[in-house]
Amino acid sequence: MLNNQETIKNFLLEADDYLNVLIEGVEELELKGYNKETLESLSKVAYALKNAASNVNLTKIVTVSQKLEEFFKALLNEEIKYDKSFVYQIKSEINLIETMINEIYESDKENIETKLLIEHEPIIFKTPLGKDKVKVSLSLIEEIYDSLGEILVQKNLISDRERILLDIVSEISDKVEKLLREINNFSDILRIQKQKQKIGDVFLDDFESFKTKKNDESYIFSRKIKEITNDMKESIDSLSLFSENLLFHLKSLNQEIDYLKEILVKLSMMPIGILLYKVSEAIKEKAKEIGKKVEIDIKGTEIMIDKAILESLYEPIFYILLNSIQHGIEFPQERVSKGKEKEGHIKIEVKRQGNYISISIKDDGKGIDAERIKEKVILEGLISPEEASFMSQEDIFSYLFVPGFLTSDNIQKENGKELYNVKKLVSKINGKIEVLSELDKGTNFIIKLPQSLTLRNLLVFKSNNLDFAVPIDYIEEVLMVEDFPQVFKEGIIKYKNREIPVRVFSEIFLSLNVKNPKNGYIVVFNFSGIRKALIVDEILGHEETIVRSFGEFLKGLTQYFGYFISSKGNPVYVVNPLTLFD
Amino acid sequence: MNEEKREAEKSYCVFGIGEREFLIPKENVIQILDVTKIFPIPGAPDYIVGALPVKGKIFPAVDLAKVYNIERFNYSDNKLLVIEVKGEKIGILSDITPFFVSFESDIVLEDFIDPEKLFEQLKIRSKEEKKDAK
Fold first, then answer.
1. What is the average pLDDT across A45-58?
2. ipTM of the predicted structure?
């Protein structure tokens, strides 16, 4: 009993501090208006209060402070639009906590607990979160996607036709100009003849006069044709102006569709901050358990990402952070002896780069020794010492993700396995992962992801009269077969100091024997540092489109991500390049 | 009496492969199409003759002759019987124009095809699933 009272007493002291910080924070919020710094500290304090209360089983305080914490985070991630009136609501919630705590001061725990249970529900979170918001089911969004896909197909069809029309118009225009030139030449000749005749007019005989008449007729005829052709040219010019206008309208239609795509993509997106805060809290707990101190600084929380991607990001980010606190960041004493701060620092920075998102996770721990990895890679016979001397840091570190690699090394016994898993998880959402490290300075993991899984950037190619596509995210370069005459014999290309294994698409996918085509292309993929190449017959171009997944019946065809219907109406199968090299 | 009889009847769609005829419940049949352009799906088993694009989506077309080892003598007059199973559309090649019949429901039918069983039997299994099955 005494023990219990003791812990409650401790809690009360702690809670007082937290409450003061909360009140100060809200006042600051009132003064400065919406600002991330204050909200961040508020959410941290609310979190701390929640933990403290849960240790002494004051469930009511736990729920109120947890809801406060969630509310601050929602404000932080801009899921809820900040409104001045919130300050008063937050204040009343804090007051509620304050009265609860005061009541504990005056009574013993058992009584207060029952009292608190019948307390009213916090009001703040019952008010609708943002009046201008509605809930949309994902299936509805999918339906709009479907319809948008059809619009894209139709639009592409019109664009194709428009291109054909433009070709025809320009061809006619060419021909008309040619015709005009011919007529001009012809009439010039006639004119010269006429002039000659004028000179000899005096000596006219019957035959000559007949000839002149004939020439006059031809001259008049040529004038007429010239006029008609000129009219034709005018019409053609206005036709080409018309189709140029049409092209302009199609372009603005394109812009509109692009805009619509963007909005649709946004509909199924959430701010990445939600996830990053969640993972960071879990990691801080873990760090405490193993006796290390870490500060996690997060930037770019407002960046939006597909909900499906967000959900599959938790694990890889958790493992990377776990790796940092287990193997990267040193124990406090060790850090101090190295002249570092006692607390380890992890910086998570999210950036948008076009349609991609990069998440950089950087710690200031002990780093990874590139030389040791190099030695190990050579020792395992994965590369020769000569090759190793040419390798870039990036390439050396990419071996960290090779399954089984480093597992026998005493520096990072579990890492090999963990990092391999991280890579697998990231690949699943079509992401790439890189690692950079400097000994004793720290390690930096960089994950690159598409912002959305549904709308994909694809390279479309043809093989044996069927259309295929691969996501551009994986493609590093496209080379010409003619520049690598040995490729069919050797099955590899030597490029930029690398030996890249090459396979022929039509051999793997269509079981065809290729008779060394001279005009093919070599598509070089980069799977998180590991490069593989694929020979395809013909590249049709680039397309940004919605990729549909195969239904249940065809789902077993794991070599494909799905398909889309081309503007010509035929299916284009989107190949998962990772399965090509298994 | 008559009404009762009607209630006890069940409607089927009859389609043909080679010299054989099969029955499938009428309620699964969506439409009957002329076989126009079917695009092969590389990597699919041989009984899947290809994919048929319809309104921005594709559905697979299957040839049961390959499943039941039926020999075909004429390839003309191919029709595609489109059925819906488990929310998905599948086309079945038929050598005759399919037609509808009704039988009393207590009659045991030979050559009756249960669409759900067919779906489970024919759906493509991934490499992992195949390994598990072994």
1. 84
2. 0.87
Q: Which residues of A touch B55 (CB under 8 A)?
A: 150
> What is the count of residue pairs from A and B with beta carbons less than 8 Å apart?
67
Task: Show Cβ contacts of residue B107 under 8 Å, excluding neighbours closer than 6 positions.
Answer: none
> Interior CA angle at A358 toward A268 and A42, to 5°?
70
Mean pLDDT of A438-464: 86
**In the predicted structure, residue A97 carries a pLDDT above the cut 90:** no
- What pLDDT is recorded for position A120? 38
Number of residues written out for chain B: 134
Exposure string of B57-87, with b = 16+ CB inside 10 Å and e = fewer, is bbbbbbbbbbeeebeeeeeeebbbbbbebee
Amino acid identity, position A396: I
One-letter identity of residue A207:
F
pLDDT at position A361 over 90: yes
* Inter-chain residue contact B56 with A153, CB threshold 8 Å: yes
**Sign of dihedral through CA atoms A331, A333, A337, A340?**
positive
- Residue A294, sorted as left (phi over 0), alpha (psi -120 to 50) or beta, turns out to be beta
User: Residue with structure tokens 């680039």?
Assistant: A542
Q: Are the beta carbons of A553 and B57 separated by less than 8 Å?
A: no
Q: Which residue of B has its CA nearest to A556?
A: B126
Yes or no, beta carbons of B55 and A466 under 8 Å apart: no
Q: Residue A56: name the closest of A93, A110, A102 by CA.
A: A110
| Residue A34 amino acid letter | Y
Reading the block at residue A414, the tokens are: 């579990």
Which positions ≥6 away from A376 have C-beta within 8 Å?
A: A399, A405, A406, A409
Say yes or no: B62 contacts chain A, CB-CB below 8 A. Answer: no
